[in-house]
């Protein structure tokens, strides 16, 4: 199903087609939501935040040319025109680990080469700290904006629609490539209970064992099995988070306030930004690099690659090939469906992926500055929360008494 912006429609006409379709998909047996960096940009725009931080490239004091060349090659191999900070830090980490082993040779240790490697390590540490602080700056701009209530209102409604599934259905699985905590802040404000792999309250620790933990309650005056609590979702941050720290053998989540001025005051003594679990940061070895990301991507594949699953993407530009491969595998199952919602496609990755997969019957594309606009999407197209039984009951009564009725024309047109 293709809903592009190539033809001019009135919003009311588009809604008659899109809202019922999304409502049916939202009630799939399994429902997943993949969120990219476009979400923070959308909330920042609604909250009237200017100059939101971007993931730009950095310059290293040592081995800069080699890092730049290798990161560009890596980006092009993934189908992207330009490299970004993630590509740079990935190459810099691999280079640092390799050179650290190389410097252990006796004939090398007497030269100034180890000093260059130490400079590279300090560069990685400094730039990771700066990157984390830029993410906190984005959180802080939204937090301190005079229009933050409006931004969070749309964030809450965006999350509530898929997350408020009836307790008898499988929980919404939220996946995000973002390092910020915007989803967590929105869910907390909305009263959505998020379940992840971390266990504990004072210093939550990441657990590889995937226990199917859920939330139940006992209705008053009713005996029997407890009921599932509504408004519960499971979240997986595929690329890590700025508040995940590698402490010796454990991955822990630190108490970093939303929109803090800097990450350094919240790090334990002896812990540097080099220990932040930001994909694919690892200052040690391949085993550390694989953990915990291998567990997170296993969760992603297990959740979406199953029958009767609908995956909705918002603000994700399909620039991560390791994620795209899993999505392609999901669509080999005939009963799965992919909904792509995006404001734009500047790199052309969305349309190239759409054409490459070649399964139009299993894909719905809502692309453009009208359908992909978060404000318009929430106001007009995504269904109301499933637990809003009053509205559904009212519509049923109106249909039974008055027959089919049409909503008043808003007079707005799609782009």
Task: Summarize the helices and strands and which ones pair or pack.
Layout: E1 2-3, H1 11-26, E2 30-35, H2 38-46, H3 64-77, H4 85-102, H5 106-109, H6 113-144, H7 148-163, E3 172-176, H8 182-190, E4 193-195, E5 198-199, E6 205-206, E7 216-217, E8 227-228, E9 232-237, E10 240-247, E11 250-253, E12 276-278, H9 286-290, H10 293-304, E13 309-314, H11 321-330, E14 337-342, H12 349-357, E15 363-367, H13 374-381, H14 389-402
What does this molecule look like?
The chain starts with a strand and ends in a 13-residue tail after the last helix. The protein contains 14 helices and 15 strands. The strands form four sheets. An eight-stranded parallel sheet has the order 1-15-14-13-2-3-9-4, with helices on both faces. The chain has a three-stranded antiparallel sheet with strand order 11-10-12. Strands 5-6 form a two-stranded antiparallel ribbon. α7 packs across α8 and α10 packs parallel to α11. The longest helix is centred in the N-terminal third of the chain and has 32 residues, at 113-144. By secondary structure, it is of the alpha/beta class.
């Amino acid at each position: 199903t293709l809903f592009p912006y190539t033809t001019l429609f009135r919003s009311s006409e588009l809604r008659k087609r899109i809202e019922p379709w999304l409502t049916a998909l939202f009630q799939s047996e399994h429902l997943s939501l993949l969120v990219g960096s476009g979400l923070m940009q959308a909330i920042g725009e609604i909250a009237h935040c200017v100059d939101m931080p971007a993931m730009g490239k950095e310059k290293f004091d040592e081995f800069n040319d080699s890092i730049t060349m290798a990161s560009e090659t890596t980006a092009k191999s993934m189908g992207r025109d330009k490299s970004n900070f993630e590509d740079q830090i990935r190459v810099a980490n691999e280079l640092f680990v390799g050179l650290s082993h190389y410097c252990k040779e006796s004939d090398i240790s007497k030269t100034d080469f180890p000093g260059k490697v130490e400079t590279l390590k300090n560069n990685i540490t400094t730039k990771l700290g700066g990157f984390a602080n830029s993410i906190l700056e984005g959180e802080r701009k939204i937090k301190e904006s005079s229009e933050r209530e409006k931004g969070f209102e749309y964030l809450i409604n965006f999350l509530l629609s898929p997350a408020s599934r009836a307790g008898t259905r499988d929980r919404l699985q939220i996946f995000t490539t973002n390092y910020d905590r915007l989803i967590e802040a929105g869910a907390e404000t909305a009263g959505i209970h998020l379940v992840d792999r971390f266990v504990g309250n004072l210093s939550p620790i990441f657990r590889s064992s995937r226990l199917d933990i859920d939330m139940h309650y006992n209705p008053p005056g009713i005996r029997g099995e407890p009921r599932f609590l509504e408004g519960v979702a499971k979240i997986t941050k595929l690329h890590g988070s700025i508040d995940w720290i590698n402490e010796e053998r454990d991955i822990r989540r630190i108490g970093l306030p939303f929109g803090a001025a800097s990450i350094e005051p919240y790090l334990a003594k002896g812990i540097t930004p080099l220990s932040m679990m930001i994909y694919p940061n690892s200052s040690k070895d391949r085993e550390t690099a694989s953990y915990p990301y291998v567990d997170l991507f296993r969760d992603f594949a297990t959740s979406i690659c199953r029958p009767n699953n609908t995956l909705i993407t918002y603000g994700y530009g399909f620039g991560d090939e390791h994620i795209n491969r899993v999505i392609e595998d999901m669509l080999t199952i005939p009963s799965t469906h992919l909904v792509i919602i995006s404001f734009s496609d500047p790199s052309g990755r969305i349309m190239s992926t759409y054409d490459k997969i070649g399964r139009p019957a299993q894909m719905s594309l809502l692309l453009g500055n009208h359908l992909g606009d978060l404000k318009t999407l929430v106001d007009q197209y995504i269904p109301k929360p499933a637990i809003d039984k009053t509205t559904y009951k009212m519509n049923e009564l109106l249909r039974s008494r008055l027959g089919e009725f049409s909503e008043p024309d808003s007079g707005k047109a799609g782009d």
